[in-house]
Design goal:
Elements (H helix, E strand, L loop, with lengths): L7 H11 L6 E3 L2 E5 L10 H4 L1 H10 L11 H13 L4 E3 L12 E6 L21 H15 L4 E3 L5 E3 L4
Antiparallel strand pairs: 1-2, 2-4, 3-4, 5-6
Keywords: Activator, DNA-binding, Isopeptide bond, Membrane, Nucleus, Transcription, Transcription regulation, Transmembrane, Transmembrane helix, Ubl conjugation
GO biological process, one term: immune system process
GO molecular function, one term: RNA polymerase II cis-regulatory region sequence-specific DNA binding
Length: 163
């Protein structure tokens, strides 16, 4: 993934404003994306999958002339990226799912501000499993009570003198 890549919302806003993609329309904080099914008669990759291809090129998932075109994957990746945004929601009752004029309509909500000073977590602490807890308690009991140990059902240790 390129380090200087524009995020999806600003990239999409720029595409909408430039009117470079036929069928990508804007109105009243909503936009429509052409969503024609590839099995439809008259489907063409250059027009019907243009936005998906441009997003794939932008993200580095497709390199024209180097990798094979895969519009099905481009569309799935674009849909996933779009659906993961908290400030863009699909308007299902305005979308047209079938036919040669199929579109998906989305509404742009107010941008969700990022928390200041937070860094992404690079290391996640593994979840403590029940077995790890038991082993840790046994190790502590052995460390602090070097004489005979008896374990009670709730896994707390009690000491008993060595006989």
């Amino acid at each position: 993934m390129p380090s200087s890549r524009t995020r999806l919302r600003p990239w999409l806003e720029q595409k909408i404003e430039s009117k470079s993609i036929p069928g990508l329309t804007w109105g009243n904080k909503m936009f429509a994306i052409p969503w024609k099914h590839a099995a439809r008669h008259g489907w063409e990759m250059d027009t019907d999958a243009r936005i998906f291809m441009q997003w794939a090129v932008h993200t580095g998932k497709f390199k024209p002339g180097v990798t094979e075109p895969d519009p099905k994957t481009w569309k799935a990746n674009f849909r996933s990226a779009l659906n993961s945004l908290p400030d863009i929601k699909q308007v299902k009752d305005k979308s047209i799912n079938k036919g040669s004029q199929a579109i998906r309509v989305y509404r742009m909500l107010e941008e969700v501000p990022k928390k200041k000073g937070t860094q992404p977590c690079l290391y996640k602490k593994p979840k403590t499993t029940h077995k790890r807890k038991i082993k840790a308690r046994i190790a502590l009991c052995i460390l602090f009570f070097p004489f005979k140990l008896t374990f009670i059902m709730d896994l707390t240790c009690s000491t008993a003198p060595v006989s």
